[in-house]
C-alpha cells in the first residue's frame, strides 16, 4: 500500500502485484516495527536482518495501482510514522489477484447502440417503418399476431435497433384501418373516372367453416389500363338467398359510388347468384371458367370413365402415402429414362386435376408397372393392381376427348386480362369439337355427348347472346364473327352501329 496526506483524511491505494510481493507485505505486518526507511529481510540461514531502503513495497508497486478508496478509519494523528504504519497495516492487507476476483464486464451493461434513444412514435422514421409493417400484413395476408412473433421482432431489432414496434392492438385499431381508408380513397378516386364498371361476386367458405362474400371491381382507366380491385370480403351469417345477396351487392354499389357506372355482374352458375342478378336488376354474365368446369364434371360422371378414375386415383394415392413405393418409383424412372415426375391425385372441385392425374399416369405407366412388381412395394397390398390393356386404352381415349376442354380452361386461367369477348368464339369451337364422329369409341362418344348437352344450356338467352356477340365484334381478334351465320353477323353489326351513333362525342380524337 502507499499512504498520502491531504485534505481531511488519508486515502489508501490498493495495489495488486505478484505473489512474492504479497509474501513480503505479510512478513512485514507480522514482524516488529522497523524504521520507516528500513526493509526487513532474511539471510540465507533464516536470520532476520534489516537494511535501509524506502517504504516496504516493491519498486514496481506504483505501476500496479488500480483504484483508491477512503480508509474506513483515519490514521491516528501521531508524529511517529512507524507506529502509525504498523497500527494501520492489518486493516489494509494487500490481497492477491485471482481469476475469481478479476473484474468482469457487467452483463447488464448496455451496448453503445442500445443506449441510443429510441425513435419517438411521432417521428417520420418510426411512422414510415410502422406503415411498412402494416403494408406487409395487408398485402401478404399475414395475421395480426405476426407483430408478436419473436423472429419478426428480432428482424426489426436487427434492422433498426432504435425502432420500437407498436402493439398488436395499435395495428388492429389504428394503423390498418387508416391504411384501409387511405387505399379506399385512392381506389374510389380512380374508379370515379371510369365510364363502366363490372363487378364479380363469389361466395365461399373458409377452413374454419365461416362464410364470406367477396366482391371485385374491374374497369378500364383513362389511360386504357385494365384495373381490378377487391372492394370487400364480408362475413355472411345469414342464408345465401338471392334476395339477401342482391341486398349486399346493392350496398356495395352504393358505398363505392358505382350507381351511375352501368354495373354488370359476373358470377358463377349457382341459382342464388342468378336470382341475385334478377333481384338487383344487374346485367348478368355467367363465369365461363365455371361453366367449363360444370360441363367437364358431367363428363367425369360417365360410368366407364368414373370407374377408370377410381382405379388411377387409388394407385396415385398409394404412391403418395408409401415412401417405399415412391423410392422404387424414382429408381424405375431412372432405369427407364422417364422424367422424375410425381404422380398426381385429383381434387374433386377442379375437373382439370382429374385430367392431369390420368395424363401423368399414362406418362409414368412403365415405371408404375415395374414398381408394383416389386415384392417390397406390394407387401400388404396384394390387391393393388395396375391398369390392364383395356383400362389404358380408355385412359388414352379420355385424355383425347377432354383435351379441348383442358385447352379452353388453361386459356381462361392463364389469360392476364380475360374478357367477355372470348366466350362466344371459344364456346362455338367447343360445340364443334364435342360433335361426335363415326370413328369415336363408346367412351369418347359418351364424354362428348355429356359436355355438349351441358354447354347447350348455357348462354342461350337473347340478352346473354347480345352481350357476348357485341363484345366479340368489338375485339379485333374476332370482329369478323366467323362462328355466326351471315344473318346473325349482320344483326350484331347493326346493333353496334346504332349504339355507336347514340354515343355523345366528348372530345375529337384528333385535333
TrEMBL record:
InterPro entries: RNaseH-like_sf, ZnF_BED_domain_contain. Residues 28-52 are annotated as: Disordered. Residues 39-51 have a biased composition (Polar residues). This is Uncharacterized protein. It comes from Dissostichus mawsoni (Antarctic cod).
